[in-house]
Amino acid sequence: MQVISRRLGNQSLKPSASISLLKSIYPIYDHHYGPDHGRYVSTLTPKGVGHLVRKGTGGRSSVSGIIATVFGATGFLGRYVVQQLAKMGSQVLVPFRGSEDSHRHLKLMGDLGQIVPMQYNPRDENSIKAVMAKANVVLNLIGREYETRNYSFEEVNHSMSEQLAMIAKEHGGIMRFIQVSCLGASSSSPSRFLRAKAAAEEAVLRELPEATILKPAVMIGTEDRILNRWAHFAKKYGFLPLIGDGSRKIQPVYVVDVAAATVAALRDDGTSMGKVYELGGPEIFTEHDLAELMFETIREYPRYVKVPFPIAKAIATPREMFLKRVPFPLPNPETFNLDEIHARTKDTVVSENALTFNDLGIVPHKLKGYPIEFLISYRKGGPQFGSTISERVSPDAWP
Ligand SMILES: NC(=O)c1ccc[n+]([C@@H]2O[C@H](COP(=O)([O-])OP(=O)(O)OC[C@H]3O[C@@H](n4cnc5c(N)ncnc54)[C@H](OP(=O)(O)O)[C@@H]3O)[C@@H](O)[C@H]2O)c1
């Protein structure tokens, strides 16, 4: 695939401290892509993917011309992005690091040979180059909202993004780079995760000024990690712990809309290049309102235990204290994640002058209705208890 233009002049690469750390763990082979290498220029075309050769009617068996490497395809958002790319006839390269099972649900989303799983090691630059080699667009959906013994916030959410952007820049044929960050990511955030996400945005834009940054709010959908967890907890224990007083404002968004925005940004004529979009749903909820909607849908009487921040932090702290001190892995935090508790001290809504779904030509769905219909599986009496989609649920109707 020919690259139309190289807009930026030669810039020498100055890897940040985090990349140097990665290099010390896993040596990076500089002799192929040294700073004096002719390809060390931004190689993204200013025209997006509009000029790619397309064939067919635009459906699953057509050829969109897009060959996308989707890092993080095995995650929650990844499955919807892969599905939307595959259904317009794109070839999707799926880097995976875990077992063969982590990607098998993706294989059926495209025609035979269109979804290509490729094992890689996120700490080995050569394996990253291998999964990007045939691509003409790169999407980075990698992220993790808790630390493990092996991976720090900074490595997963910042250094890896920086490294992907550097490799995409060297590649010479990557036309679009889409980085998925997080609404609320800022260098002044009380959360380390959000600070790492902000650092990643900066690093990606430094390497590839034409990259597009998407900052979704908390995502809702069948595999989400908020309503599912709440419903599960409420069913098991008969109440829901609300951290703080539940008055924090959030703007939850349907995951399918975020995937649609990702693909819209990818396919446009280059308008979204170099821009940052904040993707929030059409309604602002307090955490308490969202929990009410969850209880209403699962048809349980809403009972809350308000957990003040200091107590929530005290519950969450031991895991973080012992994480790197004990010789075995600790369970991943669910309800009480210390860093998330820090993040929850601030409202997270789309800022006033931000570019949004609107600017990508997408109208996001309201949550009530189809986007949260998966919650009916938590209903007492089974999912068929009561009516389902588009139903008006009134608390008076509860037994
Ligand atoms: N979920 C939300 O509500 C939400 C809201 C705003 C922004 N975001 C951001 O949106 C992006 C996608 O979110 P998601 O909910 O789809 O995340 P997810 O379900 O947790 O998936 C994350 C992906 O990142 C990969 N990953 C995690 N740690 C990794 C590591 N150390 N090395 C290599 N790969 C690693 C995972 O691979 P494995 O399958 O191998 O673990 C997975 O494919 C993330 O950047 C996230 O921060 C999410």
Automatic annotation (TrEMBL):
Gene3D superfamilies of this UniProt entry? NAD(P)-binding Rossmann-like Domain (3.40.50.720)
Ranges for the NAD-dependent epimerase/dehydratase domain?
Answer: 69-280
Alphabetical list of SUPFAM superfamilies matching this protein: NAD(P)-binding Rossmann-fold domains
Instruction: Fetch the InterPro entries from UniProt.
Output: ComplexI_NDUFA9_subunit (IPR051207), Epimerase_deHydtase (IPR001509), NAD(P)-bd_dom_sf (IPR036291)
Q: Which domain of life is it from?
A: Eukaryota
Q: Which GO terms describe its cellular component?
A: mitochondrion
What's a Gene Ontology MF term here?
A: protein-containing complex binding
What Pfam families does its record include? Epimerase (PF01370)
Q: Which PANTHER family match?
A: NADH DEHYDROGENASE [UBIQUINONE] 1 ALPHA SUBCOMPLEX SUBUNIT 9, MITOCHONDRIAL, NADH-UBIQUINONE OXIDOREDUCTASE 39 KDA SUBUNIT-RELATED
Record's protein name:
NADH dehydrogenase [ubiquinone] 1 alpha subcomplex subunit 9, mitochondrial
Organism (species): Quillaja saponaria (Soap bark tree)
